[in-house]
Design brief:
- The complex is a heterodimer.
- Chain A is an all-beta fold.
- Chain A is built from no helices and 11 strands.
- In chain A, the strands form 2 sheets. In chain A, strands 2, 4, 5, 6, 9, 10 and 11 form a 7-stranded mixed β-sheet that branches. Chain A has a 4-stranded antiparallel β-sheet with strand order 1-3-8-7, with no helix packed on it.
- Chain B is built from no helices and 11 strands.
- Chain B has strands at about 5, 10-15, 20-25, 30-40, 45-50, 55-60, 60-65, 70-75, 85-90, 100-105, 105-110.
- In chain B, a hairpin with a 2-residue loop joins strand 6 and strand 7.
- The radius of gyration of chain B is 13 Å and the shape is globular.
- The chains are: A mainly beta, B mainly beta.
Chain lengths: ~120, ~110
């Protein structure tokens, strides 16, 4: 079974539209994240969400908003899409192990193309 | 501003040889260090984690950490063509990972048959 899943896999939309990407993890992890990977393959954290605490990367425009209906889901809503939002968006979640070590697992990614 | 630096490559290594990938980081407070492998069009896959100075071995992979030098490396022994991918170094300041990982831009590794 897929540990972290995202839908849709591909999303093509026009500038100015509003869209959402959904993420679900079935591992019982407490912390979930959204990352953006741009055309140069640079992967950057956008948000982390831990037990209702949201940590926002200050460089993320407020057009982006994470929404967590429950512990297993962290969706990403994007308003007024711009060309520069075109990228691959990855959801991830963290398993905290005994001793303070942890492992972060990524979903398959959503390739967003804004035209 | 936390930074993680990697040589973008491509790094070309003959099959069966040892591939050596390097990474430096700017934040001395970093406590957790990871290597991810990413095939083209796929998501990052965790292959190694290391938390204390020294070496950590897992199969053909060895991660090395030197916190004094702010340096992390990954050695891949007996390199196989299937190891051809982009390798991402990632660090985290806090032990729990609540604020997410800071990634380098990755090293593109090519294993030549």
């Amino acid at each position: 079974d897929t540990a972290v899943s995202q839908t849709p896999k591909y999303l093509v939309t026009q500038m100015g539209n509003d869209k959402s990407i959904k993420c679900e993890q079935n591992l019982g992890h407490d912390t979930m994240y959204w990352y953006k990977q741009d055309s140069k393959k640079f992967l950057k954290i956008m948000f982390s969400y831990n037990n209702k605490e949201l940590i926002i990367n200050e460089t993320v425009p407020n057009r982006f908003s994470p929404k967590s209906p429950d512990k297993a889901h962290l969706n990403l809503h994007i308003n007024s899409l711009e060309l520069g939002d075109s990228a691959v968006y990855f959801c991830a979640s963290t398993l905290l192990r005994d001793g303070g070590t942890y492992e972060q697992y990524f979903g398959p990614g959503t390739r967003l193309t804004v035209t | 501003q936390k930074e993680v630096e990697q040589n973008s490559g491509p790094l070309s290594v003959p099959e069966g040889a040892i591939a050596s990938l390097n990474c430096t980081y700017s934040d001395r407070g970093s406590q957790s260090f990871f290597w991810y492998r990413q095939y083209s069009g796929k998501s990052p896959e965790l292959i190694m984690s290391i938390y204390s100075n020294g070496d950590k071995e897992d199969g053909r992979f060895t991660a090395q950490l030197n916190k004094a030098s702010q340096y992390v490396s990954l050695l891949i022994r007996d390199s196989q063509p299937s190891d051809s991918a982009t390798y991402l170094c990632a660090v985290n300041e806090y032990g729990g990972g609540a604020d997410g990982l800071t990634f380098g831009k990755g090293t593109h590794l090519i294993i030549q048959p």
